[in-house]
Amino acid sequence: MVLVRPQHSSVIYITLLFAILLMLVPIPDSLRYARPEWVAMTLIYWAMALPQRVSIGVAWLTGLVMDLITGGVLGIHAFAYALVIYLVGRLHLQLRQYPLWQQAFTILSLVFLVHFIVMLNAPSSFSLTNWMTVLTSTLVWPLVYAVLRKIRRSFQVS
Amino acid sequence: MLLAVVASVLLYFLDTRLDYFKPVRATLSTVVYPVQKLASMPDDFVTWFSELFQGHQQLREKIMTLEAQNLTNSVRMQKMQALESENMRLRELLGSSFRLQERVQVAELLSVDLDPFYQHVIIDKGESFGVYEGQPVLDSLGVMGQVAEVSQFSSRVVLLTDPSHSIPVQIVRNGLRAVVTGRGLGEALQMEFLPHNADVRVGDMLVTSGLGGRFPVGYPVGTVTAVDFPQGKSFAEIAVAPAARLSTSREVMLVLPGEKIDFGITYPLQIEEDDLPLLEQPPATDEVVTPAEGND
Fold first, then answer.
1. Secondary structure of residue B259 in the 3-state scheme
2. How many CB pairs below 8 A link A and B?
3. Partner A contacted by B113 (CB < 8 A)
């Protein structure tokens, strides 16, 4: 790393805010369970690309905001995101080398983990439709990756 | 990582186990309110935009239907007023106090999707408007739910369909009392703990019974859509469709606490206040000679 000084880190927070908004924007009821985990994916991307900028602390705080916004029990999303970002932080060097489809499978398991933790505390039962979000997240990952990489490069976030 | 785990677990226990953690949560919810407001903006904008470009003809039609509706409503209101005053008179004769009308405050939903596992909505009135926890929420057709959490500018409302929500009801046809609970999926409720011989039919209308003192009496809750008596189960399975448009209403009404939701009979209190001669006088007065038993 040549650049030590952090640059344009506000871009990271803006993308996170945008991801949170995407989680909240109303969509038809039939699609509600299929909403991709935008926030988790955004966090994973930044933790992968810039592990020194997006750490467990950022993930935990983002999770806390999600808990407050979705009205769940405090600490659930915070824990889930922190855990996933911890794993990404350990694996980021490998993850960067993977081809996109292989990354998508890693995303599948990571989003599965997030969703599992959140579901543990949800009042409704474990039905198959509740897991749609894992599948849709995997499918949109290449898009998220491409968009965020474009943002990172054009703003030279480091 | 360890720190994050400890902090999460700590928060989890504080939030679920301790009641006095609520104000902290309310404050934090106030902080995230702008984000929620921001998220509801696209939808608000679309509504505003489509209203802006509504044709002249459409607006005329809308006004016509509203006027017609207003006319029928005011005719009904006249009748209602007569009935209401008659009802009040009769109740006064019985010596019970009963409010037919509650004052309401209108609030608007924030068009924000929350966790799909909870049947909650956010409304744009909070503590600054006097909203309080447990306040009943109605729409124009019936009961929607109650306020679960209040922050400064917004509140979270638990809908009837939330699995953690129950409401005491009464069947209009025969006065049978029961409890209606949410099921957590879509627009469906169920009536619980009724035996197989309970007199419930498809199409029965359910209104709030007012028991429990949280919801005012007589607001529609739903209609029975299916009745099943499964073999080998102790209770009937009764499906109820909510009366309120839970997923499409934008304006909701909050019942104000000013009018006490009072369904009890209060004559002992009234007698103490004015009609004392009938009761035993306190011995503090001089008339110790007249025994109280002789009065009746």
1. coil
2. 117
3. yes
User: Cβ contacts (< 8 Å) between B34 and chain A: which residues?
Assistant: none
One-letter amino acid identity for B197?
N
Is A65 inside any structural domain?
A: yes
Number of domains forming the structure of chain B: 2
By CB neighbour count within 10 A (0-12 exposed, 13-18 middle, 19+ buried), where does B29 fall? buried
Contact B7 A60 (CB under 8 A): yes
At B50-102, the pLDDT tens digits run: 878 777 888 899 899 999 999 999 998 888 888 888 887 787 777 655 555 66
pTM over 0.80: no
Which residue among A17, A76, A123 sits closest to B163, beta carbon to beta carbon? Answer: A123
Q: Which of B10, B112, B186 faces A24 most closely, judged by CB atoms?
A: B112
Confirm whether A25 is domain-assigned: no
Residues B173 and B207 reside in one and the same domain: yes
**End-to-end CA separation in angstroms for chain A:** 10
Check if the beta carbon of residue B137 is closer than 8 Å to that of residue B146.
yes
Give yes or no for A70 touching B (CB within 8 A): yes
How far is Cα A81 from Cα A64, in angstroms, rounded to an integer? Answer: 9
Q: Is residue B142 part of a domain?
A: yes
Three-class SS state of B116: coil
HSE value, Cβ hemisphere, 13 Å, CA-based, for B170: 15
| Alpha-carbon dihedral sign for residues A135, A71, A64, B14 | negative
Closest C-alpha to B178, from B152, B208, B136, B143: B208
B32 token code pair:
């995230």
* B47–chain A Cβ distance below 8 A for any pair: no
Q: Is B251 on the interface with A (CB under 8 A)?
A: no
Find the domain containing B16 and state its range: 6-53+102-160+251-255
ipTM entry: 0.73
Per-residue model confidence as pLDDT tens digits over B100-153: 566 788 888 887 777 777 788 889 888 888 898 899 998 888 899 999 888 888
Please tell me which of the candidates B3, B32, B120 has its beta carbon nearest to residue A65.
B32
Angstroms from A56 CA to nearest CA on chain B: 6
Same-domain check for residues B112 and B193: no
**What is the extent of the structural domain holding A110?**
37-155
